[in-house]
Structures are given as C-alpha cells and as structure tokens.
Amino acid sequence: MLSNLGPLELLVIAALLVILVTPSVIAYRRKVERLWLVVLVNVIAGPTGLLWFVALYMAMTMSTRSTDNMLPADDAV
Fold it and tell me: What pLDDT score was predicted for residue 27?
C-alpha cells in the first residue's frame, strides 16, 4: 500500500503529521506544567479536528513551569 504513494502524497502526509503534533510542540517549548495532558488530548483526540483546537488552546494558555534555577541573561558569563 505504501509503495503506491508518490512524492506528493508523502509530502502531504508529512505536512499533516507536522500540523497534528503542533500543539504538543508548542506546549513543550513553552514548558507548560501539565505537558502530559496536552500530549494526551493531542494524540488521542487531535485527529478529530475539533479537539485539536482544544489541545492548541491548552498549549497556548496553560501556565508554565517556573524557571528559578536559571540565571538571568544579564548574569550569564
């Protein structure tokens, strides 16, 4: 079945997969507190379309972890 796919079809599938995991990537990059929840909603219900937007909303609005252990940019050597 996969051998019948041309380059355009493979490109479309790859683009759809990138779009599908976008909420999880955003949540990871923002360092949200409940990353597991965003990933769970994204993986289980993301392909439905409507809940993909819920996962994206969660990724963009959830509170982030504190960065107490990091040095301020001014004090970096």
Answer: 95
Report the interhelical angle of 50-61 vs 35-45 (nearest 10°).
170
For residue 6 the two structure tokens come to 């041309």
**Quick one: pLDDT at residue 65?**
81
Q: Model-level pTM? A: 0.74
Nearest to 39 by CA among 28, 53, 50: 28
Taking the CA atoms of the chain, what radius of gyration do you get in angstroms? 17
Residue 24 to residues 2, 61, 73, Cα–Cα distance (Å): 27, 13, 27
Q: What is the pLDDT of residues 33-62, one digit of tens each?
A: 999 999 999 989 878 888 899 999 999 999
**Ramachandran class of 31: left when φ > 0, alpha when ψ lies in -120 to 50, beta otherwise:** left
